[in-house]
Amino acid sequence: MTEIEKQIQDLTERLRYIQDIFGNRENANIALLGSKLNDFTKNRQSLDQAQVKRHLSSLSDLFNFLESKLEKELTPMDRVRIVRHPQRISLGDILENVYDNYTEIGGKDEYSIDPSMIIARAYITRKVGKKVYKQPVMVIGQEKGHGQEFRNGGSVKPWGNAKAMEYMKVAETENIPIHTYIFTPGAFPVEDYPGAAQQIAKNIYAMAGLKVPVVAVISEGGSGGAEAIGLADTRIMLSHGYYSVISPEGAAAIEGRIKGEMRATPELVDRCARQLKITARDNLKMGYVDRILDEPALGARPEHFDFFKKLRQEVIMATDEIVLSVRGFKLFRAIALKKLNNPNIYVRWSLSPKSKERLSWQRYQKFRNLSRQFLIDKTPAWQKALSTVSHGGSSVYSFLRYEFLGRHQRKITHLAEDVQGEVQALFGRIMNKGSEIIQKIPVLKKEKEETCNLTTLSSWESGMSWDEHCRYISPQANQDRTITCPNSSKFGCLDLWAPDLFGDFAGVCSYCGHHFSMEYEWYLFNVFDSRSIREFNSKVESSNPLGFDGLDLKLEQAKKKTGHKSACMTFEAEIKGVRMVVAMLMAGFRGGSVGVAEGEKFIQAAELARTKHLPFFAYVHGTAGIRIQEGTNGVIQMPRCTLAVRRYLESGGLYLVLYDTNSYAGPVASFLGCSPYQFAVRSANIGFAGPGVIRETTGQDIPPDYHKAFMTLSRGHIQGIWDRREIRTNLYHALMTMGGEFLYYR
Question: Could you tell me if 161 and 199 are in contact, meaning their C-beta atoms sit under 8 angstroms apart?
């Protein structure tokens, strides 16, 4: 192919690329480019060599000028098409052009690494003065190109995310930074072990505690798939990228109530893309990315080598800044980096133990403060002041009780136990002989039996049953009709009279054990001790931070219907005298979806449990996931809440989760799924995505029992299944056995 033919082909591909980006919209500038290129190809044969070169040069200049002009006309949906385009840069291009050398880790078959997730050990060479430094780094990210036929479009399966987490921990062991590159429309919604939701939750939890600098670069950030490698100290977003809770098409399908083979209109998709605030500028304004890296007009492509130089400089400087922000000796280098923008200053990327601790605390504080500007809290000032004083008092008491006195008490207790053990070993035989003699004395037999009762497991008292604590009757029990169990054709269940089913039977089929849905009030009144519930943060309200069309009305209806301001109710309560902090997601309020208010309430509940040294119980009456109308404000709650949970667990807390009805998506794939103790009420459905989303994403229909609790148990997601009538007893036993005497690990 001659040089002229290559130039013509290049211009033809550029035109096709522009047409792909702008879709079917009519545009005078695009029409002009097409007309000029078409005229040239038609008249080329009549031109001599010099004229052809002159026309090509003129056309190239016209393309450059109009591409810059078209850049200003891009809509959010145009940017989505840019990051999805096959000509978009990919992780393979970045490895080749940003890093000086790298070795890809793992194979390319599906079950060794998942080809949509690339992990590479790389290094960056830096020359400072006459000295050359090679700084190692772990590169992790989704790959959409370079063999895209087996890359699955960047949708990572659970084992791909598991491999990413494994090598994040390797980087932590080697004390080297991690650079993650996010190129995903979302995670692949498969529940096969370890399961999409469970693995993403593990990844977020692990990243929350990494003791090395993490820099994330976002091109296409689709919800949970992005969060699996996105919890970073610095987040850089490419100027044409998008970061969202859901794709614009997915949001349009929900807003337009699209079902079956129907498709949302382009106008609705465009409107949702605008309302979700998914662009780099939107996310920078809201505070969810730290900086934007400008791309060439209409997006970075593999031939834009100057862009790779800018990206290289950006990730180096971001890593330097993170290290210097937690290191003690940094003054002049920090000034040089921030004020002079000077990359030619060497910063050693390994961290000392103290710096690592500062890094973890800095990361927690950063995410703790995100989205709080959108919070609506109508709690009166005097109540806030009283709560602050109470919280401070609890902190002081906890420090004295558990840290100061508790530490010395434990030492004394451990010493006494050791001495007692030595005495028992020394005088064991003498004591056994003495015991035999004592047993023969009739007067002391009764005392021995009483001692035995105090040291053996408790048993049911005669005549006791679970329903002695029932004080709430479901309104469904007022229906004078019979109810047919959905399992009747399979197990032959007979029809049940509604007053019996929703009254004495607690919504449980007496033939097969199927659990019908019950109101959240049933659990409040039948699980916890009478009059022990003390709600807090009840004035924190769900809001509409993006001004999404129709959401204000829907929220008002939900508030009026439920009597609550948000989908999360937080309270302190007792079970058989054992006090705990509870966060409950209520399915009746917008499906139990999580937004800014719900995330903040959950975090404050975890912080209260940590301050008071109380067990933390998350009861999921039902959750549809992250509230899509809040956009990134919702999805950011995944890492925020997980960081709070990790801090609570690392302080020694006991965190239990119980799922009921339908529990899906973001909450399950983060702050709920990271609990070491997760249980489900029988007949509950648990997973990453519902059947409709899976069908739309993968084109596959799943079995009807795919998300059932017993299947979730078999995959290792949960640790047990509870009958609704036994929740009170099971929860109390769990607290006693998992938490022990003080209901705290350490």
Answer: yes
Check residue 147 and report its DSSP letter: S
In angstroms, the CA 625 to CA 598 distance is 11
Q: How far apart are CA 266 and CA 252, in angstroms?
A: 9
Among residues 80, 147, 93, 10, the alpha carbon closest in space to that of 299 is found at 80
Cα(605)–Cα(601) distance, integer angstroms: 6
Q: How far apart are the C-alpha atoms of 140 and 168, rounded to whole Å?
A: 8
Q: 280 CB contacts (<8 Å, ≥6 apart)?
A: 237, 238, 239, 240, 241, 242, 243, 289, 292
DSSP alpha helix (H) spans, 23-105: 28-43, 49-71, 76-84, 91-98
Q: How far apart are CA 631 and CA 636, in angstroms?
A: 9
pLDDT at 145 over 90: no
Residue range 260-288, pLDDT digits in tens: 667 778 888 889 999 999 999 999 999 99
- Please tell me the CATH code under which domain 519-739 is placed: 3.90.226.10
DSSP string, 706-718: TTBHHHHHHTTS-
Domain 88-369 and domain 519-739 have a common topology: yes
**How does DSSP classify residue 543?**
-
Domain ranges of the chain: 3-73, 88-369, 519-739
Peptide bond preceding 667: is omega within 30 degrees of 0, i.e. cis? no
pLDDT per residue as tens digits for the range 438-454: 566 655 444 444 443 33
CB of 626 closer than 8 Å to CB of 645: no
Residue length, the chain? 746
Q: What angle do CA 558, 472, 594 make, to 5 degrees?
A: 30
DSSP state of 103: E
Beta bridge partners of 123: 101, 136
Return d(Cα 561, Cα 588) in angstroms, integer: 8
CA angle 531, 532, 538 (to 5 degrees): 95
The Cα 112–Cα 110 span in angstroms is 6
> Closest Cα partner for 709 from 731, 676, 682?
682
Cα distance between residue 523 and residue 619, in whole Å: 9
CB atoms within 10 A of CB 80: 25
CATH fold for the domain made of 88-369 = 2-enoyl-CoA Hydratase; Chain A, domain 1 (3.90.226)
